[in-house]
Amino acid sequence: MNARPALLLSALMTVPPSFGSPAEAGLSQIRLAEAAGIIQAEVDAGRMGAAAILVGRNGRTVLHRGFGRKSSEHGAAAVQPNAVFLLASITKPVTACAVMLLVERGLVSLDDPVSRYIPEFHGADRSRVRVRDLLAHTSGLPDMLPENAELRRVHAPLAEFVRRSCSTPLLFPPRTKFQYQSMGILLAGEIVERVARTPLRDFLKREIFAPLGMKDSSLGLGGRRVEDTVWCPGPPGATPEDLKLYGWSTEYWRDLGAPWGGMHSTTSDLAIFLQTFLDGGVYRGRRLLKAETAAAMISDQNGSLGAPWGLGWGLARSRAWNYFGEGVSRRAFGHVGATGTVAWADPETQLLCVVLTNRPVEEDKGDLLQRVSNAVAGAVAR
Q: What letter would DSSP give residue 205?
């Protein structure tokens, strides 16, 4: 009796975002053309090989384009607007979302010590680290382990990264300062796996990607070949030999499923995820999170530390977080990825922007992403 309505809802959820004209959305077509032109100029000059952009407002997509080629190989396919990119750290708010789903179900508390779920995380100040600290970057854990390169060279599994993270010295007592830390997000993903008793990549697919219709998203390769995605150089600073062993386009790194940076996705799928938070945890009638949970994730959790950050999401209020550009409001939220990606949304203007490239952020300190974001934010006419 109820199967048909369920099927209809499922079909509705996989419909891509509606398209509209810039004028209908109260946006300047000239400013949006300038945003696209910035990207095109970089590709034409050979300073970047591939990119895609999506801009939306009030639930309607007004700009959606691909640029360049998927790789530098002769005859490589042109980048389509929904080409699959390695997101890098835009993975972090998705992992945080998985934690918050467990919080809503009463299976995890943000104020619980991490050791409640990962008993081997103990000793010294580790007993004081809360789940909340992992998501707000106040745990004292390092961004990367001291032996990070060594582990990647031998193709260590995530379990070994977890084991080392449980014993690596904290850099400062919990909640005394802010320091961006990928290893905290690693342990947040480990909590999801232990509590849900399922691999994080499967949990994300079942509980987030499938319900929202994010059909091209996966943690790890999701059954794809690396060649099916946009090629990525780097990481910057790695030797040629290390790039062959664990570079961003090796099968090892692409399918490791790192909770802090191993997600693959498209501009459209990320737009769905951003829109869900703009709409209070709901996307097209399907509730993913309670409104209160969604609001908490995009609100400052760090109080007097002077380092505003949400639960997984970066905030435009943070002085150190300028990849969204200067044109967004203080309520804007989003995340950047080291592979050359950014996704942000502004509740004040109901504007969202996703820019995926394969030029590492370190090459220009995020200048390209910021300039494009400024042009997009400057397109708001009313």
A: I
Residue 12 has pLDDT above 70, yes or no: no
Residues 277, 264: Cα–Cα separation, whole Å = 20
Across 321-345, b (16+ Cβ under 10 Å) vs e yields bbbbbebbeeebbbbbbbbbbbbbb
- Of 236, 261, 109, 114, nearest to 181 by C-alpha is 261
Q: What pLDDT shows up at residue 13?
A: 36
Q: Facing residues of 51 across strands?
A: 67, 357
* Contact of 259 with 88, CB cutoff 8 Å: no
Distance between CA atoms of 285 and 98, rounded to whole angstroms? 20
- Please count the other Cβ atoms lying within 10 Å of the Cβ belonging to residue 18: 11
**3-state DSSP assignment of residue 276:** helix
Closest by CA to 317, choosing from 339, 289, 346, is 346
CA 350, 136, 345: angle at the middle one, nearest 5? 10
Give Cβ neighbours of residue 334 (< 8 Å, ≥ 6 apart): 274, 313, 314, 316, 323, 324, 342, 343, 344, 345
Contact 230, 358 (CB under 8 A): yes
Nearest to 318 by CA among 331, 327, 309, 329: 309
Three-state DSSP class for residue 55: strand
CA–CA separation, 210 and 249 (whole Å): 26
- What does the alpha-carbon distance between residue 180 and residue 110 come to, in Å, rounded to a whole number? 18
CA 82, 277, 209, 180 dihedral sign is: positive
What does DSSP assign to residue 380? B
Residue 166 CA to residue 212 CA, distance in Å, equals: 33
Q: Please, what is the angle between helix 29-44 and helix 367-377, to 10°?
A: 160
Cβ atoms of 87 and 337 closer than 8 Å: yes
State the pLDDT at residue 320. 64
The residue-averaged pLDDT of 266-279 equals 98
In this model, does residue 322 exceed pLDDT 80?
no
Whether the pLDDT of residue 1 is over 50: the answer is: no
| Cβ-based burial of 177 (10 A; exposed 0-12, middle 13-18, buried ≥19) | middle
